[in-house]
Amino acid sequence: MEYVFRPEAVPVVPVLGTASMFPVHRIYCIGRNYAEHAREMGHDPDREPPFFFQKAASDILTSGALHYPAETSELHFEIEMVVALGDGGTGVSVSDALGKVFGYGVGLDMTRRDLQGAAKKLGRPWDIGKSFSGAAPCSALLPVAQVGHPERGAVRLSVNGETRQSGDLSQMIWSVGEQISELSRFFELRPGDLIFTGTPAGVGPVVRGDRMVGEVEGVGRIEVEVV
Q1: What pTM, to 2 d.p., does this model score?
Q2: What is the DSSP letter of 161?
Q3: Distance CA 171, CA 130 (A)
């Protein structure tokens, strides 16, 4: 096949303890999936059905350095467990959903909060606040065979050694299986899809020179410096 120009390499995430790479197809993110985070963003978690947004696959960042993005003065962190799909489909039942999972990792849903807020006020999509180069830092993935399907475990993030976010996977409003099932109603899920499963309360800004350390108990750890 002859291309007009050489295509970009497929974005990949390493698989822990192996030389294998997980090719990323799409990145889905669920909004306000922890009650306290929903409240800190000014919403009532008891009234909302699940909703999702996307980041570009090319937003994946697996190095330890995040370049501060353009046109924002409010770059916010959101620590999340990441689900990596090894199988896909449409109309997936909750009972079958976990069988689609390849493994789990730790990610950061980095957000240009000021741009997201401006888009919200105008009733516009959030893309400009949520999708940009480096917007989705992700750790190496731990396969299901090693980690199982975590339902509880501490979710933490510190900035420069100070704890900023602290929660537990058991506090998710919509479970991993429910998220997969719901997404499959609207999209044909594919192997290589990543799902960022929501963040606990405590989100906030970082500046150049800040070092973020995130952890999901039993799943992994991520360290990113803003440069």
Answers
A1: 0.95
A2: T
A3: 23
**Residue 41: predicted pLDDT:** 58
Strands of 79-85's sheet in order across: 52-55, 27-30, 194-196, 79-85, 101-108, 142-143
65: enclosing H helix or E strand: strand 65-66
**Chain-centre distance for alpha carbon 145:** 21
Cα(23)–Cα(13) distance, integer angstroms: 7
What pLDDT does residue 49 have? 82
> What is the reported pLDDT for 48?
73
Are the CB atoms for 216 and 139 separated by under 8 Å?
Answer: no
Burial pattern 13-42, b for ≥16 Cβ within 10 A else e, equals bbbbeeeeebebbbbbbbbbbbbebbeeee
User: Over the chain (227 residues), what is each successive 10-residue block's mean pLDDT?
Assistant: 94 97 98 74 68 96 97 98 98 98 98 96 95 98 97 98 97 96 97 97 96 98 98
Let me know: does 122 contact 128? Beta carbons within 8 Å: no
DSSP letters for 164-208: EEEEEGGGBSS-HHHHHHHHHHHS-B-TT-EEE----S--EEE-T
Give CA–CA dist 22/15, Å, rounded. Answer: 7
At 93, is the secondary structure helix, strand, or coil?
Answer: coil
The encoded tokens of residue 139 equal: 């750790």
Nearby residues of 138 by Cβ (< 8 Å), 6 or more positions away: 13, 60, 61, 62, 82, 105, 106, 107, 108, 194, 222
Distance CA 76, CA 226 (A): 11
